[in-house]
Amino acid sequence: MDYPYEAKYPALQFAAIFNTNRCIGCHTCSMACKSTWTFSDGQEYMWWNNIETKPYGGYPQFWDMKILKLLDSAHVSQEKEMTWNTDKKDVKKAPYGQYDGMTIFEAVQHEKPEEGQSRVLGYLPQDHEWSKPNIHEDASPINTKEHDAMGFAKEGVKLPVHDSFFFYLQRICNHCQYPACLAACPRKAIYKRPEDGVVLIDQERCRGYRKCNEACPYKKPMYNGKTKASEKCIACYPRLEGKDNIISPEGVPVETRCMSACVGKIRLQGLVKLDSNGLWEKDSSNPLYALIHEEKIALPLYPQFGTEPNMYYIPPRWAPRNYLMQMFGPGVQQSIDNYTYPTRRTLAILQLFRAQREIIYKFETKEGPKIYEREVTLSDGTKKMLEVFDDTAIGYNKNGKECVRVTVQEPAFERSAKFLNSI
Q: Alpha-carbon distance 167 to 400, whole Å?
């Protein structure tokens, strides 16, 4: 892949997993971020964290459809295909196959937008595209199955794919390994922090050329008309540094605002070690590494862009596979099957999602008794018997101290008759 700068990899990389199957679309994460970072003049339209309803929603509107169209046009003009070669698999570098198409860094050489900069393929959203951050919320494609006289489908929806569907997509800055915003900035005002890989914009160097807004395929750098500079998600880095003494008196790293406010418990955040080649070092005790590289249930968003994003997603079980493969790559089928038929280890780690504020550096599991079993159907129609055990997941913070202990079966408490109807 063509990238204008020599890659320099941080010692640790900020990363996270979002479980789209659990999100309830409450926007609590968005409001937590908004009330902390983007409540000032010039930031009214800024939503560093946003939840959008797919397939129709987006912020800015149609951001992914527009960059995909530009990328497709570049391939058509060069008579190339934007395809994945699933035969070329590498356990560490390309576990699901190799992308044979052009990335946004290469496609710009063949498909330059009008008045666009030449380092990264992109476009600058118009003002009206930044309105309505939750546009088309809960809107789904029309159910094409046969309907009765009242307009209801005669046949109900069922897994593995719903005929009419929508799902919530959680979005923050991906703090990419190869940031498009960094590559495009003529002022070199954007950089990755060497201690945690967080991508930041130097407000003193930025002159508001908006090349980062144009280049980022996820449209997460945003221009402030008051300060005449661009701003973006900073991954709440004071919290990553352990400097939020109110919730971390011991000085250990804690989750970002959007993560810690999540009602649906869909988020798991952490820091992973990188080797000299920018690949994740093997660390089976890190819950992020375990779920992404060993259990293989989480995937990056639009990996074909070439930025190597560090936010990963567990795809929704009910959405059409072709749509999900365009969004998350060829690992979708395996990811959904591994989530539908999880290992004991996967189930245990899933209980750690949003279970505490301190970042989990290591985890371990303790086996418990069998509590449940049922037959599940995988994507290819194969039926398997899923056995669930009441195992315990234990998480440890940066200092090696236990910070959370949860069981697969959540405890239930029965209210006494004396307080049966009381609040």
A: 37
What is the DSSP track for 23-77? -----HHHHHHHHHHS-STT-TT--SSEEEEETT--SSTTHHHHHHHHHHHHHHH
- Angle among Cα 382, 388, 389 to the nearest 5 degrees reads 150
Q: Which among 199, 231, 152, 161 is positioned nearest to 309, based on CA atoms?
A: 199
Please state the φ and ψ torsions of residue 56, each to the nearest 5 degrees: -100, -25
Query: For residues 104 and 306, is the Cβ–Cβ distance under 8 A?
Result: yes
Does the bond joining 60 to the residue before it have cis omega, within 30 degrees of 0? yes
Measuring CA to CA, how many Å separate 207 from each of 42, 47, 116, 132? 15, 21, 17, 27
* Level-2 CATH architecture, domain 12-338: 2-Layer Sandwich (3.30)
pTM of the model: 0.94
Distance CA 50, CA 30 (A): 5
- pLDDT confidence bin for 163, thresholds 50/70/90: confident
Alpha-carbon Rg for the chain in angstroms = 22
Angle at 303 between CA 360 and CA 82, to 5 degrees: 165
Lowest-confidence segment of 38-47, 125-134, 245-254, 395-404 by average pLDDT: 245-254
Taking the C-alpha atoms of residue 251 and residue 248, their distance in angstroms, rounded to an integer, is 5
> Residue 422: which pLDDT band, with cuts at 50, 70 and 90?
low
Closest CA to 101 of 70, 65, 71: 71
Q: Give dist(CA 421, CA 415) in Å, integer.
A: 9
Answer whether 77's CB lies under 8 Å from 111's CB. Answer: yes
Q: Where are the domains of the chain?
A: 12-338
Q: Is the pLDDT of residue 110 over 90?
A: no
In the structure, what pLDDT confidence band is assigned to residue 116 with cuts at 50, 70 and 90?
A: low
With H, G, I as helix, E, B as strand and everything else as coil, classify residue 1.
coil
Q: What is the pLDDT of residues 335-383, one digit of tens each?
A: 999 999 999 999 999 999 999 999 999 999 999 999 999 999 998 889 9
pLDDT-derived band at 151, boundaries 50, 70, 90: low
**What average pLDDT does the segment 102-125 reach?**
83
E-only strand ranges, 235-330: 267-273, 299-300, 311-314
DSSP letter assigned to residue 297: -
